[in-house]
UniProtKB/TrEMBL annotation:
PANTHER family: MANNITOL DEHYDROGENASE 2-RELATED, MANNITOL DEHYDROGENASE DSF1-RELATED. One of its GO terms (molecular function) is oxidoreductase activity, acting on the CH-OH group of donors, NAD or NADP as acceptor. InterPro entries: 6-PGluconate_DH-like_C_sf, 6PGD_dom2, Mannitol_DH, Mannitol_DH/Oxidoreductase, Mannitol_DH_C, Mannitol_DH_N, NAD(P)-bd_dom_sf. The keyword Oxidoreductase applies. Keywords: Oxidoreductase. Residues 38-285 form the Mannitol dehydrogenase N-terminal domain. The keyword Oxidoreductase applies. Residues 294-474 form the Mannitol dehydrogenase C-terminal domain. Pfam families: Mannitol_dh, Mannitol_dh_C. This is Mannitol 2-dehydrogenase.
Amino acid sequence: MTQAAPAPRPVKLCNATLAELPAGIERPRYDRARLRPGIVHIGVGNFHRAHQAWYLHRLMQEGAALDWAILGAGVRAADAAMREKLLAQDCLTTLIELAPDHRSAEVIGAMSGFLPVQSDNAALIAAMADPAIRIVSLTVTEGGYFTDAAGGFDAGHPDIRHDAASPDTPRTAFGAIVAALARRRAAGHGPFTVMSCDNLRGNGAVTRATVTGLAQLSDPVLAGWIEANVTFPNAMVDCIVPATGPEEIALARAFGIDDAAPVTHENYRQWVMEEAFCAGRPEWERAGVTISADVHGWETMKIRILNAGHQVLANAGELLSIPTIADCMADSTLSAFFGRVEREEIVPHVRPVEGMTPEDYLGLIIRRFSNPAIRDTTRRVAFDGSSRHRGFVLPILRDRLAAGGDVRGLALVEALWARMCAGTREDGSEIAPNDPQWQALNAAALAARADPSAWLEQRSIYGDLAAARPFAEAFGLWLGMLWQKGVRATLEAYLKQ
């Protein structure tokens, strides 16, 4: 990658114009006409293109993995808009790296096509049933795995009930996976690996539970075959990738590239995976992926220190009208709050991994969060708190309670989320709905202003935590103070304790 120079009139991105891109812009050196799909990826968002697709592109640049190209796919209406944009530019993507002191761009081309987005997922099922597809990967967000409050498979979800009753015309990605595996088994073909690339603790195990649980509802024999033959590797993925808007599109144009869906990202990536691929895989380790038997250690460190750390900052930042995570870290009160909660209540519940202590990892996260070039909005980070708090923050809280530790900091994190879900910032401006469960969260948050227990009684999120007296009392104290004295005064009161 190279430093940007003044760009001429932007070149419309597509295969035919790759040679016309400005000098110094890295682009595919391989013949994209030779690409053959080996992976179907469901959920082609910014993270996938900046992470998994980039690692595969690196291999292709060396002349390897040309039979592992990615077929994009989606199961939501919003995926159709991404499909239209990417097909118009031959599934090429501009990646723009935002380091603290420089910016650089490259064009990647590991995706060879994008399947039609259909209500019955017919094209997706047919593609996955093709034995040439050896991996099906997913980025469907942390909340997209149909889990209940305890982390188990939610067999009662309406979409799951639909897919169990109509397995040939499923609504969900998991229903489509089950249908494709059924076809492969019936045809005598081998299975594919199902690989989650979402931020979930034990993401492979969670994916296995959802796929086999759904199959069990409609075809127990198929479920047994899946359990015995399909692999679900656990993996830890990491790269901060902001959403794309007009500023990012303009930035790509400044590099001389007319890209309808460019991606900006930080100058850091990590991917740790376990070796569990029933139908083979690309040689990702050649591109920098770590193959490890201790994925759980890596993912726990990342999910607790980085992902939970994001939740420590985002709700407070939203309430104070602070636009980005980097701006939060530049605020002395917020950064002090973040540092204290991390060091006193999160880091003690993370064990070291080979070559990295939790303390050193926290230092890395502080530097990454503080990068002013990354305009990662507090709104994006706070999105889907009902999944992110349940998955990232509350497991730490439970561990801390079990150890008899102080939970005042984590209780304040939860109180900030409850106050944010009331729907107004401290300056009186409205917070637009920012969660799939926003209506219920908003009602509980407003009721909790008078009765804090109304928030903790959301059992789908908190389970039995309302009965944990040290947490419930601290939560009620902080929530009352947030309403009476405001965010900054409450944070300062915590920091003085």
